[in-house]
Amino acid sequence: MIGCYVRRGLRVVCALTAAFALAPSAFAELTIRITQGVEGALPIAILPFAAGAPGALEAQDISEIIRADLERSGRFAPLKEHQLPERPIDASQTRFPLWRATGAHSLVLGQIAQSQTGGFQVQFQLLDVFQGTELTNLRFTVRPDELRRLAHHISDVIYERLTGERGAFSTRIAYVTNIRTDQGERFSLMVADADGFDPQTILSSPEPIMSPAWSPDGQKLAYVSFEGRRSKIFVQEVYTGVREMITSYPGINGAPAWSPDGTRLALTLSRDGNPEIYIVSLAGKQLTRLTNNAAIDTEPVWSPDGRSLFFTSDRGGGPQIYRLPASGGSAARLTFEGSYNGRPTVSADGKRVAMVHRTQGQFRVAVQDLASGRLSVLTDGRLDESPSFAPNGQMILYAASDRGNGVLAAVSVDGRVKQRLQLSSGDVREPAWSPYIQ
Amino acid sequence: MKRSLTLALGIMSLLWLVGCASRGGTAATEGAAVEDLASAGAQASALGSSGGFAGTARSQAGPKGEPGSPLSQRVIYFDFDQSSVATQYLPVVQAHAEYLRDNPRVRIALEGHTDERGTREYNIALGDRRANAVSQLMIYQGVAGNQVERVSYGEEQPAAQGSDESAWAQNRRVEIVYGGGG
Q1: Which of B23, B49, B120, B178 to mutate to test binding with chain A, by most A CBs within 10 Å of its CB?
Q2: How many Å apart are CA A243 and CA B46, to the nearest integer?
Q3: pLDDT tens digits along A165-196
């Protein structure tokens, strides 16, 4: 099954590789910095993978990617290299008392060797230091261009084995960049690995691009583009570049959100004079209007069960979040704390809504527990916006403002871990974390 | 903690040797042709091709008006979180409405904008409401509905950079943009 996973990823990796060849300058700019602590994180030791003579570089890379993945999750605190007491190649060589003394709960070790077909054989083991037992032992045969994906996959396996939750290291993020040049502005819709690696441009335009939204299968992005100086909603296949225009009505064509079954978009149109929420079927383009009043209704998002929509409305005077049956009907107000709550997004388990919440004139990312109604403010920026849950619900990616420049940041849902993804130039905004890619 | 991408570079250069390039390249070529968008300067691409870029010139069409006259002004400014046209701008709206009434083949776009505060799509809605307020005033003064198009850019195209009251005030606006026919 794991082999199958890797093989299914193959086409994707292939396309990324080609992309790199064509646009070598596009990617070496994104760095991730953990800005707030990992207190309470699980100590773990990740050894450099042992390598046959020609594979030394790859071996180092794999363990480095795994280490960075686990550290970035905030759930693990990998030991530094000088803290590693020995370099065993497998469990039989491991002297567990030495490892217990380091405080590490778990130990990751592996080997990499060139296979006869020109690829690599990778084996890794996850050991429980205190029990002195092997938790996982897996072997993979991959092509050289699959190594990076494999490293993320191994991170997913480790994360799930030790936390009981699915890892999100093999996913992607989309975001919009804006670079000002002498010739004007250049907006780009980008897709990168979840660790920020290998950003690729999938749309480039002199006019604004907004509101990227992943399809539930992770294969498409819906977005708003102002090309021709009118707003239009498109759906684009990420891995082929083929796209289709979905709406281009007079006025607003905005805020596309996928239904969980991937057959419809909820969106905002003002064709009838006022911003209202509609549902459009992707097959027939039929419109169903869901709201009808003199207020602003926008920023819809579906509940994971597809039965209701959350959205922003100022029908009560200021922007607040409401919930409405997807089949239509009356809306119920969800947020009562503060005078500005907008841009809701729902965790995959349907239990939490993240939003932009204004407090003391500052816009911050907050999360509301739907069962208790309790709201927690997670961030401390001036203009934090566009929250997006990781598919496992553990982290929220969002856009922040740093000295007038847009940057991406992430925070754990408990607010404990904070990190920053920074481009060396330009304005980065509107991140969207992909679902698990099917 | 800053992560070097040197290792990543190493992997990528290795990946690059593996020869998927031809396949990915084909997909990119197929994916890039999209409707008649080249004229608008936007280019879609597959993961893997580098997107192109072409600028579009903003229209300078429309009546010039005497310097300082209401007709010479093309921007209407708004108060924070407000979408009603302030009294001082009514002569500007009226002057353009009269021009449009006298030139029924001329079309305009009313481009609504907001400052950076608040969420992006909500600001699109707010900019639309501002453009709508100007549009309604013009229609009351006899301009045909099909002469006026509303486009809201929300906070996406600020007139002034910066995060202070002065920049915000310049960014809360509706721009009157003349198109063809005149």
Answers
A1: B120
A2: 10
A3: 999 999 999 999 999 888 888 999 999 998 88
